[in-house]
Design brief:
The chain has about 210 residues and is an alpha/beta fold. Helices cover about 50% and strands about 15% of the residues. The structure holds BIS(adenosine)-5'-pentaphosphate.
């Protein structure tokens, strides 16, 4: 199964991708996670993208397209994959279609998460993520038992640099301008499945599973 998860920052793409990965045994490919690791490790790519990410701007198309092209050719993607945060522009979407075409494969479904802006800002300003296992907590909706410590693995929790209120507003605006047009693109291809992303995580997951199977 080859899936794209589409939605604004905080819509729950990462949360649902992890559940889908467990259920279907296919890798989650999160461009955000890959880029954050590059920044943390201060690789050449990390140094190049750091300022874009900190400001909540998209990194250059070519860079992220090349990264995805390489990743989906890896062995663990032969049985399918979940794209979380890619594509995000019309150029990225067109290049993805072209690349998959040359590989003789195509996307099975594009799952779009619909969540209102107030909920998105609340989710992101309160998000805490584990440095070790990536588990996510929220300072009011899903508190960790001990402040700053992951319930699952004991790792330290951190807040993302781009989860500051003014950066979130910029990310939401960029989503509207650059990524939202992809909803129409995939609808025209007959691949779009829209999920009400406002409910409880497991309710949302049930909706996703019922739409893709
Ligand atoms: P990226 O890491 O992809 O960030 P994003 O798209 O802004 O998405 P988030 O990770 O913030 O949110 P999410 O939808 O995954 O929600 P989550 O499950 O975490 O990208 C970061 C940056 O990298 C970009 O700004 C850009 O600079 C760069 N980049 C990445 N990809 C790129 C590309 N293709 N092109 C160019 N640049 C790119 O959930 C959020 C919170 O809500 C959590 O606390 C979670 O616990 C909570 N939550 C989740 N679901 C629910 C629910 N149902 N109810 C209540 N709370 C929930």
């Amino acid at each position: 199964m080859r899936l794209i998860l589409l939605g604004p920052p905080g819509a729950g793409k990462g949360t649902q991708a992890k559940l889908l990965k467990e259920k279907y045994g296919i890798p989650q490919i999160s461009t955000g996670d890959i880029l954050r690791k590059a920044v943390k490790d201060q690789t050449a790519v990390g140094i190049e993208v750091q300022a874009f990410m900190q400001a909540g701007n998209l990194v250059p198309d070519e860079l992220v397209i090349n990264l995805i092209k390489e990743r989906i050719k890896e062995g663990d993607c032969s049985g399918g994959f979940i794209l979380d945060g890619f594509p995000r522009t019309q150029i990225q979407a067109a290049k993805l279609t072209e690349t998959l075409g040359t590989m003789g494969i195509e996307i099975d479904a594009v799952v779009e998460f619909s969540v209102d802006n107030k909920a998105l800002v609340d989710r992101l300003t309160g998000r805490w993520t584990c440095t070790e296992c990536g588990e996510m907590f929220h300072e009011s909706a899903r508190k960790s038992r001990v402040d700053g410590i992951c319930d699952h693995c004991g790792g330290a929790l951190f807040q993302r640099d781009d989860d500051k209120r003014e950066t979130i507003i910029n990310r939401l605006e960029i989503y509207k301008q650059e990524t939202q047009p992809l909803i129409k693109y995939y609808k025209q291809q007959g691949r779009l499945k829209t999920v009400e992303g406002q409910g409880d995580v497991h309710e949302v997951f049930s909706q996703v599973c019922s739409l893709i199977t």
